[in-house]
């Protein structure tokens, strides 16, 4: 029939047939899942194709929006969660230091998201082939870049200004965080670096490739080069390949028998542009430096001088021989960590692979076990072998949790069996504790300012210094750092403490509170006075400050046992940081005075410089007949850098100096 052949009429209605259950009584309500599913499905089938497409498109659109907004919100949530966990772990509060806003922590910026895993650092350019002298890489002599330097100095004051703002306006918490008294740039995550290392890193001699205009060397720098050459002549003539020059007896002394002065001086030669000297020393390293020796070395000293020196020279020169040697000595030092507590022994036999504490004790020195981290961490990054970093990180984590600290100040000894501090109650920023504080800050900087426990310990310690160790002398009211022994304050200050102004300034440059810069300014003045108030214009090893004004007395008193000078670097080191960050020429002038006095009282005519026994006797300073390796490794290097106006000559946003003045790259440069 027609009805059977013609197409069905277009339906303008939807017919709905109710099944008995669906009708559950008239107007009955059935909300069972099965009913709802079937009903929805039917309705869906009854929609036109266009209607279905529109609905599907809407769903797809909403899903895409959902995914996008989830990923962009995820990080802040993760960050907040991590923060609150961190806060729970962190005990006790630093006195006087409170979280400005504990609930707010900025999300790590995208670029930093993976930086906890230092294997994923942005790739660095490959070095040029080894053995080719390229001059002092990014240390090539360039014109003073005042624009850049001004920018750097401005950066510090910007942080200060922002801190003031932050106090006034809560809003600023997004651009700057106040964290336990520290002002930190907002691009820092809370995640500690992963201990996994995936790929070895390349040397950092990246800017060697940048052909920047050379900066002419100024007269004062020339004087440093002359001093270095004179020292080197003595070493070459009488001590070549040995540890230290004895310039008066024209011989040498051995400590480890590893050419200590030569290795310590390698990167200084590179920085000073001493091509011939460098090449000759390189040959010695390649052909004659052998670690397969039955000799006991001090873990700390060989790490900061030898491992540190080799690593930094590798970075500056790009020459793989230095990395090979660094790996070799690094591996040979590892047995030191095989102790019941994992706090390393002080001594290792690098030939036998055995380690032991000093004969008279099972203690190690706190500064020694906590000032090898920059070097071992860098060795892990370069080799891709995590064992070096793991060993030293474990020490830091352990020390972080220890009791026996006094407002962040640490005792001087730690037991390798129990892992506990010993000889409690004595606190100093001088010998045996000094570089513990220095390396807290510097590790934090090296790792990209993420390892909050390090920063926390550093900030707490500086508060401890302020609370227990700072006093003013008479008559000049010099701020100095004394010592505390079982509750008794002593106005004694080691020259070694003069690293502190430089470290404080470095912290302030990296966004920490401006108070630290103020303290640095006061302390560096004191360190300079430790030279200026002495007859030879050279500082003794230890001074005692006068707390009460006495007629005819200066601020600085010197005991007969303390009046030697070992050509130490700490004051010049701090002058260098202060000049870099402030541009105040007085710091250069002070350094220049010191160099002249070294030349006057410690220079040996036949080559080399010598430590002296009596800084108070200009007519006979009593030469000791020894040139310490750090005179070439540190003192002259910091002098040269102090007199330079080129902030790219070891840029402090790219490199961090180890405690022996060997620059190592910052993993996440600013
Ligand atoms: C150097 O070996 C290092 O600077 C160390 O941190 C302290 N002692 C000397 C220099 O004085």
Automatic annotation (TrEMBL):
Name of the molecule in the record: alpha-1,2-Mannosidase
Residues the record marks as active site: 301, 434, 541, 570
Membrane topology type: Single-pass type II membrane protein
Keyword Calcium set for record: yes
GO biological process, one term: ERAD pathway
EC number: 3.2.1.-
First-level EC class: hydrolase
Example GO molecular function: mannosyl-oligosaccharide 1,2-alpha-mannosidase activity
Keyword Disulfide bond found: yes
Gene name in the database record: Man1b1
């Amino acid at each position: 029939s027609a009805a059977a052949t013609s197409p069905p009429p277009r339906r303008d209605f939807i017919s709905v047939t109710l099944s008995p259950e669906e009708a559950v009584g008239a107007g009955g309500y059935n909300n069972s899942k099965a009913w709802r599913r079937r009903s929805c499905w039917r309705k869906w089938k009854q929609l036109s194709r266009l209607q279905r497409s529109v609905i599907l498109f809407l769903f797809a659109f909403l899903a895409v929006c959902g995914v996008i907004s989830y990923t962009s919100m995820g990080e802040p949530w993760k960050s907040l969660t991590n923060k609150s966990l961190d806060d729970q772990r962190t005990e006790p509060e630093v006195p006087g230091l409170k979280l400005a806003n504990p609930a707010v922590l900025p999300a790590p910026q995208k670029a930093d998201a993976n930086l906890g895993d230092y294997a994923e650092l942005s790739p660095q350019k490959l070095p040029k082939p080894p053995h080719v002298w390229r001059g002092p890489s990014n240390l090539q002599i360039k014109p003073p870049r005042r624009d850049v330097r001004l920018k750097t100095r401005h950066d510090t004051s910007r942080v200060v200004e922002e801190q003031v703002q932050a106090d006034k306006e809560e809003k600023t918490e997004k651009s700057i965080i106040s964290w336990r008294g520290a002002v930190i740039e907002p691009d820092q995550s809370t995640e500690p670096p992963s201990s996994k290392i995936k790929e070895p890193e390349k040397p950092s001699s990246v800017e060697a490739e940048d052909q920047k205009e050379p900066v002419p060397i100024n007269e004062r720098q020339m004087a440093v080069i002359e001093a270095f050459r004179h020292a080197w002549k003595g070493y070459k003539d009488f001590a070549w390949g040995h540890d230290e020059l004895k310039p008066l007896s024209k011989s040498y002394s051995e400590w480890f028998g590893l050419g200590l002065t030569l290795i310590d001086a390698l990167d200084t030669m590179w920085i000073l542009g001493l091509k011939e000297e460098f090449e000759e020393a390189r040959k010695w390293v390649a052909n004659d430096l052998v670690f397969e020796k039955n000799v006991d070395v001090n873990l700390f000293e060989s790490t900061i001088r030898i491992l540190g020196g080799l690593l930094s020279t590798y970075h500056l020169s790009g020459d793989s021989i230095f990395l090979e040697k660094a790996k070799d000595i690094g591996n040979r030092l590892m047995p030191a960590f095989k102790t019941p507590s994992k706090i390393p022994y002080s001594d290792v036999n690098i030939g036998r692979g055995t380690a032991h504490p000093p004969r008279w004790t099972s203690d190690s020195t706190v500064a020694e076990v906590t000032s090898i981290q920059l070097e071992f961490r860098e060795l892990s990054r370069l080799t891709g072998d995590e064992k070096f970093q793991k060993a030293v990180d474990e020490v830091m984590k352990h020390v972080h949790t220890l009791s026996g600290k006094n407002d962040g100040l640490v005792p001087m000894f730690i037991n390798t069996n129990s892992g506990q501090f010993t000889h409690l109650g004595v606190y100093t920023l001088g010998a045996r504790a000094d570089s513990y504080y220095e390396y807290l800050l510097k590790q934090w900087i090296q790792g990209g300012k993420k390892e909050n426990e390090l920063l926390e310990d550093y900030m707490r310690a500086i508060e401890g210094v302020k609370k227990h160790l700072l006093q003013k002398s008479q008559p000049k009211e010099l701020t100095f750092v004394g010592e505390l022994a079982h509750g008794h304050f002593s106005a004694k200050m080691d020259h070694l403490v003069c690293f502190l102004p430089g470290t404080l300034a470095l912290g302030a440059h990296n966004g920490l509170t401006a108070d630290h810069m103020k303290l640095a300014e006061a302390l560096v003045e004191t360190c300079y006075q430790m030279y200026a108030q002495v007859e030879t214009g050279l500082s003794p090893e230890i001074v005692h400050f006068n707390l009460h004004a006495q007629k005819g007395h200066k601020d600085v008193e010197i005991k007969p046992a303390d009046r030697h000078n070992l050509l130490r670097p700490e004051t010049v080191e701090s002058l260098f940081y202060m000049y870099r960050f402030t541009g105040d020429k007085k710091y250069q002038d002070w350094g220049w005075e010191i160099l002249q006095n070294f030349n006057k009282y410690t220079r040996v005519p036949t080559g080399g410089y010598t430590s002296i026994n009596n800084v108070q006797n200009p007519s006979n300073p009593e030469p000791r007949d020894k040139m310490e390796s750090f005179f070439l490794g540190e003192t002259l290097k910091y002098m040269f850098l102090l007199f330079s106006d080129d902030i790219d000559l070891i840029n402090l946003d790219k490199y961090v100096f180890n405690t022996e003045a060997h620059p190592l790259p910052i993993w996440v440069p600013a």
